[in-house]
TrEMBL record:
Pfam families: Methyltransf_25. GO terms for biological process: methylation. Signal peptide: none annotated. CDD domains: AdoMet_MTases. Keywords: Methyltransferase, Transferase. It comes from Herbidospora solisilvae. GO terms for molecular function: methyltransferase activity. This is Methyltransferase domain-containing protein. Residues 49-139 form the Methyltransferase domain.
Length: 207
């Protein structure tokens, strides 16, 4: 396993209790993020949905309560243990978003909510290609991230801020068509703007 994955997994395993205390209920007081997630819920085609980088399951659960057939995958066994104990009616699996244990074109939707921020820039094209592989044509992708060009290292985890224009370009190269995008100013303890992108998977490329 590459060093960045080992460090990210160990870092989140050590942060489970603190993360849950800080963020588990954050969505309930954040109408901006709720509106984006509701837009995804309204636009995603019927079928199976996956959250890649689900952490303790807070976003997966929110979407599940709104009727989506959703499961979660995460790198951190500690985060997954909390998710499974808290939301026993949802399937949570351990995995790596660079290589998802999901059949080709089997998903109608995929959410990467502040999870691509841990992927080194040179590996993002491969991650987006993997997202395209598992999404059926017309499937909907939602990604969210902090805006900027810095790499912050906190508790042995790298947090990469991203340029929305760069992310849009990489998604286009991977076979996605933009649907909508937006950003908002920082809230409370946040230091930089936050961005989100919705994109549709295009037709599969043969050969």
């Amino acid at each position: 396993m590459p060093d960045f994955l080992t460090e990210t997994r160990a870092g989140y395993d050590a942060l489970v209790a603190e993360y849950v205390d800080l963020f588990m209920d954050d969505l309930e007081t954040n109408p901006f993020d709720q509106s984006v997630l509701q837009l995804f819920t309204d636009l995603v085609p019927p079928g199976k949905v996956l959250e890649a980088g689900c952490g303790p399951g807070r976003i997966t659960s929110w979407l599940h309560r709104r009727g989506l057939d959703i499961s979660g995958v995460d790198l951190s066994p500690g985060m997954l243990a909390h998710a499974r104990a808290t939301f026993p009616d949802i399937v949570f699996s351990e995995g790596d978003m660079r290589s998802l244990d999901v059949p080709d074109a089997s998903l109608s939707g995929l959410v990467a909510w502040y999870s691509i921020i841990h992927i080194p820039a040179e590996l993002l094209p491969g991650v987006f290609a993997e997202f395209r592989r598992v999404l059926a044509p017309g499937g909907l992708l939602l990604v969210a991230f902090q805006v900027g060009d810095e790499i912050l290292r906190v508790r042995d985890i790298d947090f990469r801020r991203l340029d929305p224009a760069v992310v849009t370009g990489l998604l286009a190269e991977a076979g996605f068509t933009p649907v909508a995008q937006g950003s908002r100013e920082p809230r409370e303890t946040e230091k930089v703007p936050q961005a989100w992108l919705l994109a549709r998977a295009g037709q599969a490329v043969l050969g």
